[in-house]
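User: Okay, second chain of the day. Same drill as before: sequence in, structure tokens out.
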Amino acid sequence: MMTRTPVSQPPGPDNLEAHGGADICSSILQVMERLYHIKDLHTMLDEVLLQARQLTRADAGSIYLIENNVLNFSYTHNDTLFDAADINKYFYTSHTLAIDNRSLAGYAALTGKPLIVDDVYHIPESMPFSFCETFDQRSGYRTKSILAVPLITSNRKTVGVMQIINPLDEAREPINFTPRDQLVTSYFADNAAAAIDRAIMTREIILRMIKMCELRDPKETGVHASRVGAYAAEVYHQWSLQRGLADDEIKRTKDLLRIAAMLHDLGKVAISDLILKKPAKLNAVEFEIMKYHTIHGARLFKNQESDLGALSAEIALNHHEKWDGTGYPGKIEDIYQEQPRLGEGKQREEIPLAGRIVALADVYDALVSQRVYKDPWSEDMTIAFIKDQSGKHFDPEVVDAFLAIYDVIAAIREKYQEEGSSFCLIPAP
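Assistant: Same drill. Structure tokens below.
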């Protein structure tokens, strides 16, 4: 039979030990220790999917998270098809599944039970679910075996579904998942769900902070912040790959940068509504006042007890500095003075890398977005401006990294068009 029902025993250390899995339990606990330190949701999903695939020797996989009572496609791996840039582009696409019996992921979410399908192209007609062949047809990939596992927290809430695809033998030929694979993956998923839930809650807190800023400044929306955070993370990824940085360092910095970049304009809460909500460009006096939002933003992270707080302050303070030294707020001896004077602009490497990256991400998003005082710029106009400002406003190497992944940038902009929404959890059966 090609489709197998879940094993009757619930996953757990005792069941794994019966299948020779004592070492697996120890490995999973070590993985969970690493997951505990991850803050960004995308980084969390990447690590969870990577570890699940390594446990089962799987070629590919995907994770759906429950958002607005549907399964939202949130992350993917495919060693056969994708290099890093391809993966980054693909997981920013939008795709949802209903939480019902019609799809494998929907079935796992609805029932709260794992499911193994040995060959998705030969699912018995008696089964309520079917396999969507669209991705295989477009990509030329051959999905064979799928293990779908619900991600359920300890308080019995389902946050999503993880699908692991095509376990491989020594010759890298697809084989079937085993009952042991199911036990191992289910045990890992039960532990990983809590880490994912924590990352979701962190993102919700960030979006609520940005919503507070949006009440003051209509331009500072959750989707704008999400786009700037995603642009910055992917530009940094490309920049670091071009320099051969270690993978662990890239992941660690990218994890923090996405969140910190989202908080770049929180300091606007200290600026007058007369300036923030003015339906036109600011005059010289108003613009001088607006410059202080960078200082106010950095001050919010005065008691920096974490790397995230330090990076958030760094970005808030420096994302309006310019490569040629004509930006603001410039060199200030003490930003915590009652009314610090703006200084001479920082230039080149005096500006921290994160500030240089967010400077480009923020300007790009402002140019291609609608504003009350301007229409969105065209793609051609925007790219021409960015190229012209390389070496002036922007770090030339950051511009090169941005342009190298412009298909990813476009995918991000497409994904975050609508209002951001918080994740909705459903009770597990």
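The chain has two domains: 3-199, 217-415.

User: Thanks, on to the next one.
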